[in-house]
Amino acid sequence: MPPKVDPNETKIIFVRATGGESTPSAVLAPKVGPLGLSPKKVGDDISAKTQDWKGLKVTCRLTIKNRVATVDVIPSASTLVVRALHEPLRDKKKEKNIKHNGNIPFEEILNIAREMRSRSQAREFVGTVKEILGTCLSVGCTVEGVSPKDALASIASGEWEVPDE
User: Fold this and answer.
1) E strands, the chain, in order
2) Interatomic CA distance for residues 82 and 10, integer angstroms
């Protein structure tokens, strides 16, 4: 038998969940069961915290201390870009291979880059903006009506100004 878990120890678990939906107990049980938590209750907590991200995949950080789980939502760059498109909710089971062909203003790209800055690998803010534009390219949307590749070229040539944040 494994040793007992210290109740004062803080454990951090990452779970990928669909926003607004309860994570299945079968997924959570192996992760939170040994810590003395109910997978159903943790799933309901995740569902409650991710209501703002309905229909989008988000990463949730479970911080467990004294057999109490607190949920923090950590959205990825692609999730933030798709959310910025303001698309209507879709049924994942019925609609597959969705094309996201909306348009995002450059100011919204800057806001997403500010939110992602702490998790970015870039040295400067311009690099983070370029990472987000690369995500826009892979999602399939446009920025200010132009392709993200053209937006990257505009930033490199100096046509589009990126602030130092």
Assistant:
1) 11-18, 57-65, 68-74, 103-104, 142-143
2) 33
Between the alpha carbon of residue 21 and those of residues 2, 47, 62, the distances in Å are 32, 5, 16
Single-letter residue type at 73:
V
State the pTM of this model.
0.80
130 Cβ neighbours under 8 A, 6+ residues apart? 122, 152, 155
Tokens of 42: 């943790």
Give per-residue pLDDT as tens, 144-160.
Answer: 888 888 888 888 888 87
Checking DSSP bridges between strand 68-74 and strand 103-104, what pairing results, if any? unpaired
The strand order across the sheet containing 11-18 reads: 11-18, 57-65, 68-74
Q: Please give the Cα distance from 41 to 47 (Å, whole number).
A: 10
What single string gives the DSSP state of each residue in 71-119?
Answer: EEEE--HHHHHHHHTTPPP--TTT--S-----EE-HHHHHHHHHHHGGG
